[in-house]
Amino acid sequence: MKKLKIFNGEERRMFLKYSITIIFLLILLSNMASSRDNSLPPHFKLNSALTCRLVGGLTREQRAVCHEVPDTAAVAFEGLQMAVKECQHQFRWHRWNCSSLLGKSTNPHASAIMKRGIREAAFLYALTAAGVAHAIARACAQGRLLSCGCDPLGYRASHDPRGRARVNKWEWSGCSHNLGYGIEFSKKFLDIREHVDDLQSKINVHNNNAGRSILSSHMEVRCKCHGLSGSCQLRTCWRTTPDFRVVASTIKRQYRKALLVAQEELNNGMSVLRGRPRGKRRSRAKPAPKTSLLFFEKSPSFCEPDTRMDSSGTSGRICRIGRTSRSGSCDLLCCGRGHALIRRSSIKPCNCTFHWCCRVDCQKCHDDKWVAICK
Predict the structure, then answer these.
(1) What whole-number distance in Å separates Cα of residue 213 and Cα of residue 204?
(2) Residue 157's pLDDT is what?
(3) Pairing mode, if any, of strands 234-240 and 171-173?
(4) What is the rounded CA–CA span in Å between residue 202 and residue 375?
(5) Residue 27 lies in a domain
(6) Whole-prediction pTM value?
(7) Cβ 261 vs Cβ 243: under 8 Å
(8) Which structural domain range is residue 288 located in?
(9) Which residue of 3, 235, 331, 351 could cross-link 363, Cys pair, CB 3.0 to 4.6 Å?
(10) In this model, does residue 38 exceed pLDDT 70?
(11) Is residue 276 part of a domain?
């Protein structure tokens, strides 16, 4: 019998080194061969593919866009969720408070309320369109997306807001948020849901554009000074998207004065949408401004649960005791059913003292509050 050769310590280390190197190269070649797009990390592509497959309420065209640019679609879903959270804040004292949008698999368009022509749906269309454009514009500037970067136009400091030429030539452009790409993808991803010849679809697209126009009108310019001892010998400026709450508050004001689509337009296919203020049926319908919200259906009371509207009613909601005209008042929120007072107890830190250095000691105190709950 032949004796097996026994490696010494140095030979054993060399053998293990070359074996690990060969295994690593084989795994790398396997990944390169199986991947059709090597520009994305494998774990990111897997998560994006699952996202496109698992998100509900997407049309066939939207899924095609999602699979085409999965990284951008993932950021768009972040924008939709940001819009849902902001909707909850804006409507926290309304009978309908956007709570039904939470369980719609990151896609509020799957909700039944967005298939209706009411004012709340108009608000949602404008808010979600602005949310998608806002999230993508920021993601481009942060380097999170492969298909875009900083705004190629940059910050144009050669003209003031009135169009007059500036004499200052020491302002340099920083990395501006790419609002143009954000709006373009928002149109590509959301407006594709709508049908060309349907009046409700035309209204939805108008409300989408209204939200994007409001976002565009709130773009901000931020600057940073450079120079010796903090002097502004050189200043870098860039355009940035505003805090989304500012945009949502403006859309909420448009919601309050939304225009009712003229009845004559429901019977013919006019290309220019016209509307009149709510409650003024005798006033003349005028072409809707680009930042106005449009609706054509009366909103329900949202007092009782209604699955057709994804409404859970107002029973059990916290309300405000006081003036009947106050937002969230018990008289309005409870729909005449009355309310009950419930004492809620919680433990909070109190009587805190600071000890040098560096410790804070607090006592535990019981905090009892009486809250009004709708029956």
Answers:
(1) 14
(2) 46
(3) parallel
(4) 40
(5) no
(6) 0.78
(7) no
(8) 58-313
(9) 351
(10) no
(11) yes
